[in-house]
Amino acid sequence: QVQLVQSGGGLVRAGGSLRLSCATSGDIAGVASMAWYRQAPGKLRELVADISETGAANYADSVKGRFTISRDNAKKTVYLQMNSLKPEDTAAYYCYASLRRSWGNWADYWGQGTQVTVSS
Fold this sequence. Notes:
The chain has no helices and eleven strands. By secondary structure, the protein is mainly β. Strands 2, 4, 5, 6, 9, 10 and 11 form a seven-stranded mixed β-sheet that branches. The radius of gyration is 14 Å and the shape is elongated.
């Protein structure tokens, strides 16, 4: 029943901006860390940014200064604001969340992925 639904991907010109959203739904009692990963064809999935339940954030060096991860705990949603996009940012982006179910179980969940394509 728990789902992570992503939105906000698409095609953008180099230098443009996109904002990704990942909304959790279901009988969720708590959200711990949340993160964004990306995977380009022929590449390993890499961590883009993560954010703790208290709001502490970390970024991959390649996106530092350009991307901002944030979360809305009331909405149980994580966002990724992507500015100054480069062609090398082109990838499928996946959100991740560690969620606690209503009965107390913690588990890892992934979004369905959304494509971000940055043209030169």
